[in-house]
Hints:
It is a single chain. By secondary structure, this protein is an all-alpha fold. It has one domain. It has helices at 3-7, 11-38, 44-63. Helix 2 packs antiparallel against helix 3 (44-63). The relative contact order is 0.08.
Amino acid sequence: MSCDLLFADNLHQFVAWRLIGGGIGAASVISPNNTAEIAPTRIRGRCVTLYQLGIVVGILTPCHGVT
């Protein structure tokens, strides 16, 4: 269940939660693109890979030990 359905008491809160979620989604697309554009050519792939690895580690860390 998403936060917008869980915490929204009315339509205005629902829309606000949806906009916040859209901003997070946009940032997850824009950040690696920006990194790839500003990084030097020789390390560009490594920078984007490390960004993605950070996201995966951040997702998996709270799940560690959960059975």
